[in-house]
Amino acid sequence: MTTNPFAIAQAQLDEAAKLLKLDPELHELLRQPKAEHTVRIPVTMDDGRVKIFTGFRVQYNNSRGPCKGGIRFHPEETIDTVRALAAWMTWKTSLVNIPLGGGKGGVICNPKELSVGELERVSRGYIRQIGHLIGPDIDVPAPDVYTTPEIMAWMMDEYETMLGHHAAGVITGKPLFLGGSEGRGDATARGGMFTIREAARELELDLKKTTCAIQGYGNAGMHAHRLIVEMFGSKVVAVSDSRSGIYNKAGLDPEKVAEYKAKKGTLDGFPGAEKITNEALLELDVDILLPSAIENVITEKNAAKIKAKLIGELANGPTTPEADLILHKKGVFIIPDFLCNAGGVTVSYYEQVQNANLDRWKVEEVHARLDDAMTEAFHAFIQMRKEMQVHSRLAAYLVAVDRVAQACRTRGWASRATKVSKTKKELTPA
Ligand code: GLU
Description:
Blueprint: H1 5-20, H2 24-30, E1 35-44, E2 50-61, E3 67-68, E4 71-74, H3 79-95, E5 102-108, H4 116-130, E6 139-140, H5 149-163, H6 187-203, E7 211-215, H7 219-232, E8 235-240, E9 245-247, H8 254-264, E10 274-276, H9 278-282, E11 288-291, E12 310-312, H10 321-330, E13 333-335, H11 337-340, H12 343-356, H13 363-388, H14 392-411, H15 424-427
Parallel strand pairs: 3-6, 4-5, 7-8, 7-11, 11-12, 12-13
Antiparallel strand pairs: 1-2, 2-5, 8-9, 9-10
Helix pairs in contact: 1-3, 1-14, 3-14, 4-5, 6-7, 6-12, 6-13, 12-13, 13-14
């Protein structure tokens, strides 16, 4: 009953490893990051004092391609959270079948308490510490909780300054005019919508008639609010951010809510809506629940009280293993995080491809490719779920881990069958 995200990530892998009969040495390799780095970042604050921040970069696995994953700026960041998120990135890039591995980074800081100048110096300072460890063919960071395209631009600039030449592909989620990709802004939510569309087909849910609650109003939650209304005509009755939530049975208008939040910095006081806590929001009688904030919000304490039929995990790690089992028994259909929210990294990958080719794609092209990638991933997952009769997350793990294991094996990172070549002829390629 741990809430340590890395212990959870390892337990999830163990379950999959058993069913896959994973080679013991590969299981051992995949239980831990291949490399991890903790750095101290001296930053001159606005008052002239120097404060030392701590940052992490975890490179979990690169068997399928360069490590890939965001950077979180969070006051409660820990190495274990970053390890877990890096593991989940490994399964995410595999499930969505893009040629990348998994990594993650973080800096312990509270961006809400930093001035813009301090935020820029933390961002640049972090890159000065990890710059020699990353690169377009090594490890490619991106935005995550509390990091933005502007921060990606500072980081890219710092990296290019260290190198002395351009290297836009070192980081993704950049502003459009600095090598960012069309469609990256709402890619996480849009990718999630494609999986919701496919899941609704499976469940024979008429999305036009569904109600929805969204926990979290950052990049994923805010765009999900707009897109689920725009694409499917669902009614979003409740949304929340880290501080407060709002509820209106008749539905909340996405543009008005986003505008209000941008202006006031809070959802509190949104006209015509009742106040609702984050806890109560999760237990609302809605068809679709979209946890879109942080990890461990659906646990063994509240899982039995969840009434939604479909949960789309736009956040990373919102559901604990105990809650997974309770929800599965109740018949709630979960679209697991590293499938549901894989749209972000998928368009990040498109950004890398465009950067490598000095190219720019139209938004329609990005959307069409994203739809294909997410739909294909969903079908690999649902087929496995049906074949193996396991809960959603385990099915997603089986697909993802098997692909990573295959890549590791083919590279020679696992023992071969003990057939020893006896003759020179056998050793000579035909
Ligand atoms: N931070 C996002 C995620 O957790 C995107 C990562 C990326 O674009 O590399 O998937």
